[in-house]
Amino acid sequence: MDFEQLCKDVMDIDPKIRFSMIIIDGKQKFGGYRFYTVGILDSNELDRSIQYAYFRMYSRRIQEYKLGKTKYALAEYENVKSNISIR
């Protein structure tokens, strides 16, 4: 699968989507901010957010024996889509 293309496709769904990423082993490997988008989180906050997202995804594995394998997770924050910053 082309993960960079997947991240682009996610952002193509809605111009208000500012950021799309794929995490592998707790590190951002693909995706990023939309072109000309100013990040709301500083780099330390973004790193922490990625770590928390990875932990949440990893912790879902506890239920996978009953629910099946997790395919994806999605988060939308109300203050992000309404406060688009463009340089």
Notes on the structure:
- The protein is of the alpha+beta class.
- It has one domain (3-77).
- It is 41% helix and 15% strand.
- The chain is built from four helices and two strands; from the N terminus they run αββααα.
- The protein has helices at 3-13, 43-59, 64-67, 78-81; strands spanning 19-24, 27-33.
- A two-stranded antiparallel sheet has the order 1-2.
- Strand 1 and strand 2 (27-33) form a beta hairpin.
- It is globular, with a radius of gyration of 14 Å.
Brief rundown of the structure:
With 87 residues, the protein is of the alpha+beta class. The protein has helices at residues 3-13, 43-59, 64-67, 78-81, and strands spanning 19-24, 27-33.
List the helices and strands and how they pair.
Blueprint: H1 3-13, E1 19-24, E2 27-33, H2 43-59, H3 64-67, H4 78-81
Antiparallel strand pairs: 1-2
List keywords for this structure.
globular; two-stranded antiparallel ribbon; single chain; alpha+beta; 41% helix; 87 residues
Cα-atom Rg, whole angstroms? Answer: 14 Å
Shape: globular
Are there runs of 5+ residues with pLDDT below 50, and where? 82-87
Number of helices: 4
**How much of the residues is beta strand, in percent?**
5-15%
Number of domains: 1
User: Percent range for helical residues?
Assistant: 40-55%
Q: Tally the beta strands.
A: 2
Biggest sheet statistics: 2 strands, antiparallel
Mean pLDDT: 83
Distance linking N and C termini: 32 Å
How would you spell out the order of helices and strands? HEEHHH
User: Structural class per helix/strand content?
Assistant: alpha+beta
- Give the strand order of the largest sheet, numbering strands 1, 2, ... along the chain: 1-2
